[in-house]
Amino acid sequence: MQEVFGEERGKGCFSFRARERSWGGRSKGSSEKKGERDVYAYGETPFTTYERIVEECGIGPRDTWMEMGAGRGKGCFWLAHFTKCKVIGIEWIPSFVSIANAVKGLFRMKRVEFECKDIEKVDVSRATVIYLYGIWPHLEIPKGVRVITISEPLQGFEVIKRFWVRYPWGRTTAFLQVR
Length: 179
Ligand SMILES: C[S@@+](CC[C@H](N)C(=O)[O-])C[C@H]1O[C@@H](n2cnc3c(N)ncnc32)[C@H](O)[C@@H]1O
What we know:
Number of helices: 6
Radius of gyration: 15 Å
CATH class: Alpha Beta
Shape: globular
Number of strands: 7
Largest sheet: 7 strands, mixed
CATH architecture: 3-Layer(aba) Sandwich
Order of helices and strands: HHHHEHEHEEEEE
Bound molecules: S-adenosylmethionine
Oligomer: single chain
CATH superfamily: Vaccinia Virus protein VP39
Distance between the termini: 34 Å
Strand order of the largest sheet: 3-2-1-4-5-7-6
């Protein structure tokens, strides 16, 4: 998987300035393109960080991991392959979803699926765990569904656990929480 996606160390251009805007809708005129011209103003979770999240949060084969804003889907493939959980990646950039689906077909990955949708319009009741990185959507999250956020917890949720994680831009805190 790493050969397919690379690890992009040093290329992850997450910026806090970007967080104030909406991911995928950053540049003028990009609302139709949903950020396709600006793919490097985009940050990915390193595989080592996915591994740490999985260990700290006890993600396993009984889980359904829903990744909100799955990007190129590399984390989704990693999760499905190494934890054997079911994975649903939601991403609104069509080219990311097409490529992820092509990779899924190439490697005959059965546990992972991708939906080209706005995350705010998705049925999240299928998930046992939701991963949010770099985006803060308005979601109706059912009770009992665990949510992992990076750098800040969600308001109105009970934080079960906090632990440090690394991204290309530095070290921060991950929050595991439930409603
Ligand atoms: C910071 S990247 C994270 C990618 C991946 N989750 C990871 O951690 O490596 C955020 C992704 O969310 C997508 N995104 C942002 N808002 C979205 C929305 N409303 N619906 C679907 N995808 C969205 C962006 O296009 C981008 O690919």
